[in-house]
Amino acid sequence: MTAVVSFSDLKRVCGNCSLRELCLPYGISATDLKQLEQMVQRLSPIARGKPLFQQGDPLRSIFAIRTGSVKSVTVAEDGAEQITGFHFPGELVGFDAIAADVHDCSVVALEDTSVCEIPFDRLDELSGSVPGLRRQLMRLLSREIQQDQQMLLLLGKKGSEARLAAFLLSLSSRFVGRGLSASRFHLSMSRGEIANYLGLAMETISRLLARFQQDGLMTVDGREVTLLDLPRLHVVADMGGEGGGLTRRREG
Amino acid sequence: MTAVVSFSDLKRVCGNCSLRELCLPYGISATDLKQLEQMVQRLSPIARGKPLFQQGDPLRSIFAIRTGSVKSVTVAEDGAEQITGFHFPGELVGFDAIAADVHDCSVVALEDTSVCEIPFDRLDELSGSVPGLRRQLMRLLSREIQQDQQMLLLLGKKGSEARLAAFLLSLSSRFVGRGLSASRFHLSMSRGEIANYLGLAMETISRLLARFQQDGLMTVDGREVTLLDLPRLHVVADMGGEGGGLTRRREG
DNA sequence: AAAGCACCTTGACCTGGATCAAAGTCGGGT
DNA sequence: ACCCGACTTTGATCCAGGTCAAGGTGCTTT
Q1: Measured from the CB, is B245 under 7 Å from any atom of strand D?
Q2: Is A27 left (phi over 0), alpha (psi -120 to 50) or beta?
Q3: pLDDT tens-place string over residues A33-73
Q4: Which of A115, A108, A90, A112 is nearest to A54 (CA)?
Q5: Residue A46's beta-bridge partner residues?
Q6: How far apart are CA B181 and CA A75, in angstroms?
Q7: What is the dihedral sign for C-alpha A170, A172, A173, A179?
Q8: B81: which chain A residues are within 8 Å (Cβ-Cβ)?
Q9: Percent of chain B surpassing pLDDT 90
Q10: Any chain A CB within 8 A of the CB of B21?
Q11: For B123-180, how does the pLDDT look when each residue is reduced to its tens digit (9 = 90+)?
């Protein structure tokens, strides 16, 4: 092991590429970092609506979103499509494919999007020699499990208002992490995509947004959104359990 | 690296413990295996209703179910409980905790259950020196992501019949994997727990089981279940998408 | 064998959100 | 400027599944 790389060195290498998330806090040596740097390729931007990879494609690489945004979509045998996630700069996609070496969802750009490609076998190899990288990879996989399970709770136990509020708050907190505004942002996905993601009908999203606005929780102008009352949105997002006021019985 | 261990050696070491799933097909050396063997501890059986670990506990170990069965439960801030999974012999639990070093679900025994405990930091350490083990760990994490996303599709897009049918088929195929009958088995969870897991009301489960029986799809006697028509159950499980006959519009 | 309890079933009714329908809005192309 | 197609809003109606209520069923305890 050679010297640990400084923060500024890293910034030079990855810029604000999301890969710094992958390696930063875990002490990577200069040689290891060089290897990591060399394995990453910048792809030409993906146009809105174009897939980064598709369900059924063999696992070749993991991708990091640099700019723009994407959705991941799973289609069932019967043709039903479920959006399983939206991803923004600094986030990685493709982890679903490790289990079977085949992607079981498609990832599609919601707007013009640039990504970095990380060939998986090289990443795997390097993670053998860099314990911090291995831990970080596992952490990322585990985080995805957590998020999906949080989503299961949302779909299994919460009503439409709580779902939408939770969705807006999730976007907000992720934008904050990127140094953007917590309360004012642009939705890169359509109402229909939000609806699909939350297991609701498009019309319901439309009505809910109108109601939230009317209740002073937020402002909506097309896809431009301003959250006016974060605390109350949190209350709405937490509604619907047996702990709160209005119960919603479901188990015996 | 010393000699690769034979299948029979492995059987001696892990018996039919689920850990063989973790290491078997990936060529582990005798010394490595010895290390793995030494790190695994057999816990005294967990009584029905007792937790293996609880939401909020720090990550210490991963657990492999040896006999019996467990459920994992997440409780939201508002008190709503969501069962995020059922686990049977040969399956591992605890992966959710890697991201934050804290378990974000509780795992509770559905019947008297015996498990093996695998201290996580030792597993992590060993996985550094054994590439096959590392790959297998990643595969397991990734598989959990896949399963959760499959579940998201179920909760987001399918009706009650499809959910229950898919649930029964999932149990069936998992039991087959353990060498048990695909069509005849015992439910170790209550109707209420099934309902909670599937995002339905207990009464709905009860009614659906009655209807499935009446339709000749299966036989129910308390918690004893016999699947009579696997193919038709598959059809029911796949219902509800825009590809099939009866549509269920949701996106624009 | 009676009581107690946890679990399950069945029926009657209600409601949240889906579906159907019909305009309205906006951005991009010619 | 105008048109076109994709997206969004809003209203009316419907229904799958939740909720409420009232018994069963069967196991364990005494």
Answers
A1: no
A2: left
A3: 677 677 777 777 899 999 999 999 999 999 999 889 999 99
A4: A108
A5: A113
A6: 30
A7: positive
A8: 157, 242, 251
A9: 63
A10: no
A11: 888 888 888 888 888 999 999 999 999 999 999 999 999 999 999 999 999 999 888 9
Q: What is the pLDDT of residues B3-44, one digit of tens each?
A: 444 444 444 445 545 455 555 455 566 676 677 667 777 778
Q: Which residues contact B172 (CB under 8 A, 6 or more apart)?
A: B182, B183, B185, B227, B230
Whether residues B195 and A151 touch (CB distance < 8 A) is answered with: no
Comparison of pLDDT for B1 and A154, the residue scoring more: A154
Cα A142 to chain centroid, rounded? 13
Tokens of A136: 């970080």
pLDDT over 70 percentage in chain B: 82
Residue A26: its chain B contacts at CB < 8 A? none
C-alpha span between A131 and B128 (Å, rounded): 7
Protein CA at A213 to nucleotide C1' at D18, angstroms? 28
In angstroms, how far is D10 C1' from A201 CA? 14
CA distances (Å), origin B247, targets A200, B242, B244: 15, 5, 7
Report yes or no: A21 at the B interface, CB cutoff 8 Å.
Answer: no
In this prediction, residue B247 carries a pLDDT of 35
- Whole-model pTM: value is 0.90
Task: Compute the count of residue pairs across chains A and B with CB atoms less than 8 Å apart.
Answer: 221
The side-by-side arrangement of strands in the sheet containing A41-42 is A41-42, A114-119, A61-67, A92-93
Give phi and psi for B82, each to the nearest 5.
-125, 125
Parts of chain A with a pLDDT under 70: 1-30, 33, 36, 241-252
Helix (H) or strand (E) holding A4: none
Between CA A212 and C1' D21 the distance (Å) reads: 36
Determine the residue among B92, B152, B193 to mutate to test chain A binding: the one whose Cβ has the most chain A Cβ atoms within 10 Å: B152
Contact A195 B252 (CB under 8 A): yes
Angstrom distance (rounded) from CA A170 to CA A17: 21
For residues A92 and A18, the answer to whether their CB atoms sit within 8 Å is yes
Paired tokens of A135: 């831990």
Look-up of token digits 């019947």 = B111
- Residues A246 and A239 sit within 8 Å (Cβ to Cβ): yes
Round to whole Å and give the CA distance between B128 and B134.
Answer: 7
